[in-house]
Specification:
This protein has helices at 2-16, 35-40, 51-56, 76-94, 116-119, 138-157, 173-176, 192-210, 215-218, 221-226, 234-249, 253-260, 264-282, 290-302, 309-325, 339-362, 405-419, 423-432, 446-470, 477-497, 513-535, 541-545, 550-560, 567-582, 592-616, 624-632, 655-659; strands at 124-128, 131-135. With 707 residues, it is mainly alpha-helical. Strands 1-2 form a two-stranded antiparallel sheet.
């Protein structure tokens, strides 16, 4: 009965209730591979148990399909915003430029015209995933607001997305090389005792002259830094690496060996690699973070005097673009930023301006290529203790001396450089004006020269007013440094713009343009010596040494091969001794540039020996640098090379032939010539190995290459 009733019940069910049964499906059921075959990534025959599990004598477990994703319903707000974006983009694409507007020529543009800023909107700062971007196009700002709101809607509905760490930028190695792939960044971190010492050296020797960081804000991270970099935020790690590097730059070789237990060169290489690796890991080209930019600027400052100045200027252009993308060219108050952030951005922006102006002049450019429409105010005269992140009211200048004095002075000079384009060229032309004949041209108009002289006088008065308001010689070494720097700037510029006929050497040792250029080279090196002597006991000598221009020194050395008598010649030989005393790296003749310089010095000294012996009957005592250069040269071939051409004009030997300009007319531009561009193999190929100055690797600070 039971057996007969069962089939009848099952057959009658569908007939009596047909609406309950599911509709028939022609789609076959998908059979998935078993769990073991999926894990081993081998083909499964999809039988249970499968052949693979049978052979392995293990339990065959069928895998289950992933649950179907919940279909997202159309979001009305999202669709409305998307339609709004489409309308804005259509409006932006169809917008026609005004045909009546013409672009003025570069020569007609004012040196510093801020009328554009009166009607231009202040722009907008956009924060996104820890990054900050600046947008000053009103249309694109509206579009970006819509896109950001759309993204927030999508993110709020999608809870399955996992936020990952910052992905390193694959383009960053074009600027900073590929670092040290076989070295972990943790291995480059200094020992616990060295962390504190390097930090203190930075505070004593570097921070007073740069004021990029806010010490009270960064100080708490030192406790974590002593234990290693693992627990530090990655941007703080990069910033501290740059601080350690800059501290080593501020040490001399003996101090570094005594403090760290290894050579200065090894320390520079170690912490330079640390900065590069940290910046690459952060993707600094696309991560717009103030701390990362601080690390990059400090790294750029550390390159002064150590790397090719032209390549460093190019890298500074990248820094300017990053800063501009962060909106640092617009004052923080106009952007509605908190007072503390606005002040720190001012400090960093003006430091970038100073570095860029300096590198531009050293690279032979008459004007820094900064964005034209910037209005960032100069920093306030405030100590670090006077500003704090929680401040809500704008800061006011402190009356009296502060730790900002040197930076305020330098920033005022930077403003002069930016507002007075072409001043350096005018000075050089002024120095030539006494030697230009009617056939060669009339030279710069006297009215323009007088205007530039008045501009320089105004700049000097401005610097003096800053010292009167905020400087106190008894307030510390940085105030004494500021006083000396103001004197150095004014004296050097006034010497350049003073006509040759009004100088004491006129008519005596200075009769030609070449004589005047030689005098300028000697005076420039004498200014360097004055800076060395005034800073060596204050811990700021690194700043003076970083401004040494080997091209000027090499020019003077080449002239000494032909000039044997006179007061200027004696002053020149005095500077040869000073330079080799303060720049012992020049004794490294494995560097082809240094070896070529050694050839000049040895040839000039041989000529000087002969001249003094003929005049006095006795040979002079051989200076220490001549003995060291003779022993450091690889063989005697260099000592018998022909005397360098007269005049020696690095990087411009063929310019006169092509342009019809007399060779000696190029001498006055010696400050902007690049000795590294000359083929120093003309002295032979006896110098093997070594690296003649650091190139930028792929385009960045990579491995060194030969000159």
């Amino acid at each position: 009965m039971a057996s007969s009733s069962t089939p009848s019940s099952t057959t009658s069910g569908p007939v009596s209730t047909p609406s309950v049964a599911p509709p028939p499906s022609n789609k076959p059921t998908r059979i998935l591979a078993c769990v073991l075959c999926q894990h081993r990534k081998i083909k499964c025959d999809r039988n249970f148990p499968c052949s693979n599990c049978t052979k392995a004598n293990v339990k065959c477990t069928p895998s289950t399909p992933a649950p179907a994703r919940k279909r997202r319903r159309p979001n009305q707000d999202l669709q409305e915003r998307l339609a709004r974006c489409e309308e804005l983009l259509k409006e932006y694409a169809t917008e026609k430029p005004e045909g009546s507007v013409t672009t003025p020529r570069a020569s007609q543009l004012p040196a510093y015209d801020d009328s554009y800023l009166k009607w231009q909107p202040a722009g907008q700062l956009v924060r996104d995933e820890g990054s900050m971007r600046f947008i000053d196009n009103p249309m694109l700002s509206t579009v970006y607001d819509e896109l950001r709101a759309m993204r927030q809607i999508v993110d709020s509905e999608d809870h399955d997305d996992n936020t990952s760490d910052t992905v390193p930028d694959e383009n960053s190695d074009l600027l900073l090389g590929d670092g040290s792939p076989n070295v972990k960044i943790e291995a480059l971190w200094p020992d616990a005792a060295h962390v504190i010492r390097l930090w203190q050296i930075y505070l004593d020797r570097v921070n007073p002259l740069t004021k990029i960081i806010h010490v009270p804000t960064l100080q708490p991270y030192l406790a974590e830094a002593v234990g290693g970099s693992q627990s530090l935020p990655k941007n703080i790690e990069a910033l501290l690496f740059s601080i350690f590097l800059m501290a080593v730059v501020a040490l001399d070789a003996d101090e570094c060996q005594s403090l760290l237990g290894y050579s200065r060169e090894a320390a520079l290489q170690r912490y330079s690699s640390g900065v590069r690796m940290a910046l690459l890991r952060l993707g600094f080209l696309k991560t717009h973070d103030l701390t990362i930019l601080q690390a990059l600027v400090i790294y750029l400052i550390s390159l002064q005097g150590r790397y090719n100045r032209h390549a460093a200027w190019i890298l500074n252009g990248v820094v300017i673009r990053i800063a501009q993308k962060m909106g640092m060219h617009r004052d923080g108050e106009a952007l509605g930023l908190p007072p503390f952030e606005a002040e720190m951005r001012r400090r960093l922006w003006w430091q970038i301006i100073m570095v860029d102006s300096k590198y531009a002049i050293f690279s032979g450019l008459s004007h820094s290529l900064l964005p034209r429409n910037w209005d960032t105010k100069p920093p306030k005269n405030l100590n670090d203790a006077d500003i704090f992140p929680s401040a809500t009211e704008p800061f006011q200048d402190r009356e009296g001396p502060t730790e900002m004095i040197f930076c305020l002075l330098i920033y005022a000079f930077a403003k002069f450089l930016v507002e007075t384009p072409g001043f350096d060229t005018m000075f050089l032309l002024t120095s030539q004006s006494e030697f230009v004949t009617d056939r060669d041209g009339s030279g710069p108009p006297e009215q323009e020269m007088m205007e530039y002289r008045r501009t320089v006088e105004n700049m000097g008065n401005n610097l003096l007013s800053i010292l009167d308001k905020y400087c106190d010689p008894l307030a510390g070494p940085v105030h004494q440094m500021a006083i000396n720097m103001r004197t150095h700037i004014i004296d050097k510029i006034m010497e350049l713009i003073t006509p040759a006929k009004h100088q004491p050497e006129w008519g005596g040792e200075v009769r030609t343009l070449k004589d005047n250029t030689f005098k300028i080279a000697v005076c420039t090196l004498e200014h360097n010596e004055a800076n060395y002597m005034s800073t060596k006991d204050k811990g700021f000598m690194w700043f003076s040494l970083a401004h040494f221009q080997i091209d000027i020194f090499m020019y003077m050395a080449g002239q000494l091969c032909h000039r044997t008598e006179g007061v200027l010649v004696e002053r020149g030989w005095r500077q040869v001794e000073v330079v080799y005393t303060f720049h012992p790296e020049l004794f490294d003749t494995s560097n082809k540039l240094h070896a070529a310089l050694a050839v000049f010095i040895l040839k000039a000294w041989r000529k000087r020996e002969e001249t003094i012996a003929q005049r006095t009957g006795q040979r002079p005592e051989t200076p220490f640098y001549v003995d060291r250069l003779r022993t450091s040269m690889p063989n005697d071939d260099y000592k018998s090379e022909p005397t360098p051409p007269d005049p020696y004009t690095p990087a411009a030997l063929a310019v006169g032939a092509h342009n019809g300009i007399p060779d000696n007319s190029l001498d006055s531009f010696l400050g902007y010539l690049d000795a590294s561009a000359l083929d120093w193999d003309m002295f032979g190929n006896q110098v093997n190995g070594g690296s003649g100055g650091s190139s930028f690797g792929a385009f960045g600070m990579g491995p060194q290459v030969e000159w």
